[in-house]
Design brief:
2 strands; mainly alpha; 228 residues; Rhopdopsin 7-helix transmembrane proteins
Length: 228
């Protein structure tokens, strides 16, 4: 998370705890919720990893900065474009004609994630982290920079994480997609100096909406046979 090491660890702890509770409730209510229930916990782990990036910068430990940043971008570039469409896919009713599309988006996310993440393992110098206005800025080279403009990479990435919730059968999952859209707009207008860090922070906070969906069993209204 932005701002400081302690804030990153505290936010990560809250999200992991909330995600663990939501996962337990999902298992009790309906296991279709389980992949979505894990998202706050994954977001919390990502914030803890960013806490280690802060720790490495504060202690002048480049190795800690590197592995913390690699863990952070594993979630940013690989995990989210796969897990978000897969979670929506798992939640969809069996007869939904959207399931095939959502699975295809998950597979596309896996392909994009591998192309974005694996080259950073091979070229560790591609990751450069600095403090910009009390926030962490990840200045990195991407493999796709050699093939397409960076803005197009970002556009594909955002499509793969925002389109699946918007395509959901369920209203509240679609509203989560709207939440992600609002986060992108806010970051573009006000927080562009550390956009990767802020997107993961605000997106993590946005997963609290998913906890609400699970605890209130909001999908029951639209699909009572499955979620009764």
């Amino acid at each position: 998370m932005c701002f400081s090491e302690s804030v990153s660890f505290a936010t990560g702890g809250v999200l992991v705890t909330g995600g663990a509770f939501a996962s337990w409730k999902a298992w009790e209510i309906n296991k279709r919720y389980f992949p979505i229930a894990l998202m706050p916990a994954w977001a919390g782990v990502q914030q803890v990893l960013e806490g280690h990036v802060w720790m490495g910068l504060n202690d002048s430990d480049p190795f800690m900065v590197w592995w913390g940043a690699m863990g952070f971008i594993f979630f940013s570039w690989f995990m989210w474009p796969v897990w978000i469409p897969y979670s929506v896919y798992a939640l969809e009713p069996p007869e939904s004609n959207r399931k095939k599309l959502l699975l295809q988006l998950a597979l596309a996310g896996a392909l994009l994630g591998l192309v974005l993440f694996i080259p950073h393992l091979i070229n560790p110098d591609w990751i450069k982290v600095s403090i910009n206005r009390h926030s962490l800025s990840y200045e990195d080279t991407m493999f796709l920079d050699y093939l397409i403009p960076r803005w197009l990479t970002y556009a594909i990435y955002l499509f793969l994480i925002i389109a699946p919730p918007l395509a959901s059968t369920y209203l509240h999952v679609r509203l989560f997609g709207v939440t992600l859209m609002v986060i992108v707009i806010v970051i573009y207008l006000f927080l562009i100096h550390a956009y990767i860090s802020f997107f993961c922070l605000l997106g993590g906070i946005g997963t609290i909406h998913l906890i609400y969906i699970i605890l209130r069993n909001k999908c029951q209204r639209e699909c009572p046979i499955i979620f009764a």
